[in-house]
Amino acid sequence: MSLVTACRHQEPEPSSYPDKIVLHETQLASDSVALSWTKLDNADLVSYRVLRRLSPTDPGTAISSYQQGTSTTFTDKLVPYTPYVEYQVVAILKNTSAGPTAPINSNSVKVQRPNIKVVASSPFDVQFDRRRRQLYFFERSGTISQYSLTSSEITKSVASGATIGYSDFATYNGVPELYVPRNDGWVFIYNAETLEKIDQLNVGTAATCVVANNGYLFVSTATWQYDALKVYNRAAKMLVNQTGDWYSTRFKRVPGSNTELVEMTLTIGPPDQHYYSFNGSSVQTHFADRYHGDHPVDATIFELFPNGTKYLTSSEGAIYSKVLTYEGTLPHGNLAYTSFCFDAAGQTICAGTTTRTVEQYNASTYALIRSIPTKAYPFRLFEDGSNGYVCVSSVTPLGGYGSLPYQLTIEQVR
């Protein structure tokens, strides 16, 4: 009887301690986590810092700071869409004449969601094989990975051993091939399904981009101006032409063309743009834009309309004709775009944003159709037929120009 009575009259936890901080257990509610902790009753207290970790080995990121201990609560309204989130409160104390004073750390509190799948990859580019429903992740370090939407996992991966650039796919002699430019002066050729290396092509200097079409490989290299864009015959692996104004660029083929390219520089600012029209390997037309920084351009956010008449680029959604004439921007307000794609009919533009949404616009009038919330931060978008859209998202906010995700989650958006 005395034991029961003692349990019923257990003393409540103190609201403060002179030498420790107790962070209370918490739960996720509507994508937010409300934290509270006991006050540190110490005259040397300078501030509290709230740390968030995304894995047990993560050193932590400070997501809030309270000077002079003015508050003992914090709500994380931007909980990353990950299976593991951990919080800790750190008290920063005044330094003494003897030197810095060690901080006082609270216990850690974990929020776990095992149903969420995260992909450990940090790609600068992602491509999608719709027929096989496979994503390809390309990392600067040279790692190339296949991710199956069917099994929700990376199924194959290869370490190429070099810094790689923007790659392309084509079929040669009945074999699906993947062409990967490298900074060591080579283009490696892989079987696109098995990721086995089957050939290689020496281009002499670092290569940043490959486009394959009609038996030719169009390669951007680090060769000095006026011959940096090199054209190779795939079968003979021979150089058959060279042109270009700028080295180390990215270009895309205009859909349905044989072969028109829209090119953007990667190494100069403001970026320069060029248009090329080839007949086979021969250049028919080549000219540069007339703006040179007057309007937004970003080679990392760059998508052509399916009908080949225009393209979108930059976080502002700048619209250009394929012959480099600026036409305006999407009605973005304070939104910043991270990626673009189109529906199968080419009638709807989908634009990922830094604020966890996919915005849909009419591709003719640019009127907003609707805004679709996402669980994480869209990095790349792909049309996926009756499945809607594949959204390759970063679990944490992207930091700005050139910022890359380091953990991904794959969302299906409708």
Automatic annotation (TrEMBL):
<protein>
    <submittedName>
        <fullName>Fibronectin type III domain-containing protein</fullName>
    </submittedName>
</protein>
<dbReference type="InterPro" id="IPR011044">
    <property type="entry name" value="Quino_amine_DH_bsu"/>
</dbReference>
<dbReference type="InterPro" id="IPR013783">
    <property type="entry name" value="Ig-like_fold"/>
</dbReference>
<dbReference type="InterPro" id="IPR015943">
    <property type="entry name" value="WD40/YVTN_repeat-like_dom_sf"/>
</dbReference>
<dbReference type="InterPro" id="IPR003961">
    <property type="entry name" value="FN3_dom"/>
</dbReference>
<dbReference type="InterPro" id="IPR036116">
    <property type="entry name" value="FN3_sf"/>
</dbReference>
